[in-house]
Structure formats: C-alpha cells, structure tokens
Specification:
Layout: H1 2-31, E1 40-44, E2 53-56, E3 64-68, H2 71-75, E4 109-112, E5 124-126, H3 135-140, E6 142-144, E7 151-152, E8 173-177, E9 180-184
Length: 190
C-alpha cells in the first residue's frame, strides 16, 4: 500500500508542477507573438470652408478638433516664433509629421485634441477678430483656455509663460479621403 500511495503522490506532484510551469510560461509565450496594431477609429467630418472648425466625439473618450485654416490663419503661423514655448514641438510628444510650424499632414487642415495640456480644460477657438487681448490672436486667431488663460496658436503651439507648458496634442492620423481621417489610439494623453 505504501508503494501505491507514493506512486499516486509522485504522479500528482509531477502533474501539479508541470501545470504550474505551463501556466507560468504563458506570458513568455505571448510576448513572442507579433505585436497587435494599435486600435484606430475612422472619423468623418463635413467639408469645411476656410476658418470653419468642427469637434468630433470619439469612442476613446477624447474630443477631436478639425480646423480648416484660411490663408490668413496660415500666414500667422510663419511669423517669428520667439513668443512660443516649443515652436517645433521638440519637447512635446507628437508624431514626426507634427514637428514643424504647421503641425499637420495637410497645411490647411489642423487636427488636435482640444484639451489644454495644463489641467485638461477644453480650449476655445477664437476666430480672427474675436480676441482683443492679444494682437496676434486678434489678427490670425488662436485657441484659448478659459479656465487658466493658456493661449495656443492655430497650430496648437503654446505661448511662453503660460500655465500650459506643452503644445496641444496632435494624434497620429492619416487621411482616407478629404473628409475622412483614421486616428491611431496608440498615443498616450497625459
């Protein structure tokens, strides 16, 4: 009886140890699998005239602003950027295509998350002629945080000495056609 009991215990112990090793190996085996692509969402927006803006709701909980910039608005982005905190988005986490003065794939169309990078308040679009506090905003337009006063140009670049210290987020995206974009959820919003 002693030999039978030992054999049962030995078999049970071996089975339990093998099961434990198998379960412990699952994360390692999964790490060898090809990476899944980041989830994405397709956003359709209406044809915008120069100076028009639309905000779209996304399934990932963040709003998305799409602005069609007029020639005057684009002219304001080529001025001397000495009053900007990060004119070429060197310190802001952005896709490579946004590390320039226009911060967009298409010069006329600006796509961004319209939340202030200070405390995530929704920024308001100020069209040219609507904002008398600042001459640049009065002439070319800007984004303004009504809660704490941060000001961003129409490429989402933050002014110096503002509560916000980084530019508005430009999410990784691509155009499917003139009025449809595909947003990549792989970016982190903090």
């Amino acid at each position: 009886m002693n030999k039978t009991r030992r054999k049962i215990l030995k078999t049970a112990t071996s089975f339990t140890a093998g099961l434990g090793v198998g379960v412990a190996a699952i994360p390692f085996i999964r790490s060898l699998a090809p990476a899944r692509s980041a989830p994405s969402e397709v956003i359709e927006f209406p044809k915008l005239e120069p100076g028009q803006i639309v905000t779209a709701a996304t399934s990932w909980g963040l709003p998305l602003t799409i602005l069609r910039r007029s020639t005057t608005m684009l002219d304001g982005l080529t001025e001397n950027p000495s009053w900007l905190q990060d004119p070429m988005s060197a310190t802001s986490e952005q896709p490579e295509f946004a590390k320039n003065a226009l911060r967009s794939l298409n010069p006329e169309t600006f796509v961004a998350v319209p939340l202030c990078t200070h405390l995530h308040c929704t920024v308001a679009f100020q069209a040219p002629g609507q904002y008398s506090f600042d001459q640049h905003c009065e002439t070319f337009g800007c984004f303004h945080c009504p809660c704490h006063g941060s000001v961003f140009d129409l490429a989402g670049r933050v002014w110096r000495n503002q509560p916000a210290t980084t530019n508005l987020i430009v999410p990784p995206h691509e155009y499917i056609d003139a009025n449809t974009i595909k947003i990549d959820f792989g970016f982190q919003y903090s």
